[in-house]
Amino acid sequence: MAALRFFFYLLMKPVALGMAFLGIAGINAPYISPVSWWVPAFAGLFMPLIILINIFLLLFWGFQKKWWVIFPLITILGNYNYFVSTFQWPWKESLRYAKNQTLTIGSYNVEGFYWIARNEEQKPIITLVKEYHIDILCIQEHCEESNIDSITLKKRIGLPFRKVFFNRHTNWANFGISIYSRYPILRSGEIDFNSQKNCSMWADILVGQDTIRIINNHLQTTDVNPNRAKYEAYRSVKNWSGQARTLVSILEQLKNNFQIRAQQAAQVRTIIDTTRYPVIVCGDFNDTPISFAYNYIKGDRLLDGFEKCGKGYGHTFNGIKSLLRIDFIAYDSLITGINYRSPHLPWSDHNPIIMNLSLP
């Protein structure tokens, strides 16, 4: 038993070094393009796990009263930005506002309307729009029948103006993203990623006397489910080499997706930099708030809605134990954030995010 404890003690040293390396790499994830080096992006995605292991190491080496405690301590403190982007003080006060002086914007990955269509009698989307008084709604993973009529469309969403970008077409349906608005849409454009799953679009919307630009995004999907199913199949028959090969394939796929999102972010950033109107950026980025893709898009011009107005633990994706915030609303620094909400709804694997904003 004593030999086992000694072996565990020795094992904690390389673990502490490895977790410190990944934690420090994650600190740099927003600033290092995964095209140049992909390890920080990987660390940023798995930061919840890295932080949990470092907390365990902090307690372990603290009880041992060894100087190794420095490694997890520095790693945890160094990831201050991760904690701010994930958790906000639950009892902070929202700004006071009059409803007729604000704009309410929502963003929702509806998972192809799959669960919503199965519960159409409850009118989930139009109920969401009415309950939260949503003025502009950005939808990702929009799936729509090819032969649907305009009257049915209006009843389904409850907002009079819309623009869509369908980048995949079949005989029975179209797939893509959309922007719905209570206010007139003056013009719109597509940001084509040469993908049938992912794309972005923008729309200039006239709100009163002001024009604002909304950019709706659905960045590169992680899409590791096929490899994950293969890994589970190998594990069920205790095929260790098959599991190892599948894990390598998953890492390679994650690396490629990080790099693709970085390239997509550059396309979106070009639109932001050439826009003279106040900008609001929404969507499913399939990456965390400490990722390169999100921070490159946000830049110095935009503010993160959750960090400014959110409360408690911020998560928008219901998979992976609800640990990840991968859906965002970021707005121009000329705009004032009032409040931020992300209600848990059973209609998708994502939760919607909703913000009240005051225009300049």
UniProtKB/TrEMBL annotation:
Keywords of the record, alphabetical order, are: Membrane, Transmembrane, Transmembrane helix
InterPro entries (alphabetical) = Endo/exonu/phosph_ase_sf (IPR036691), Endo/exonuclease/phosphatase (IPR005135), GPI-anchor_lipid_remodeler (IPR051916)
- Which sequence ranges are marked TM in the entry? 7-31, 37-60, 67-91
Gene Ontology molecular function terms on file: catalytic activity
Tell me which GO cellular component terms the UniProt record holds.
membrane
Report which residue ranges the record marks as coiled coil. Answer: none
Q: Which GO terms describe its biological process?
A: GPI anchor biosynthetic process
Record-annotated Endonuclease/exonuclease/phosphatase domain positions:
106-350
Q: Does the keyword Membrane apply?
A: yes
What name has this protein been given in UniProt? Endonuclease/exonuclease/phosphatase domain-containing protein
Q: Which organism is it from?
A: Odoribacter laneus YIT 12061
Lineage of source species: Bacteria, Pseudomonadati, Bacteroidota, Bacteroidia, Bacteroidales
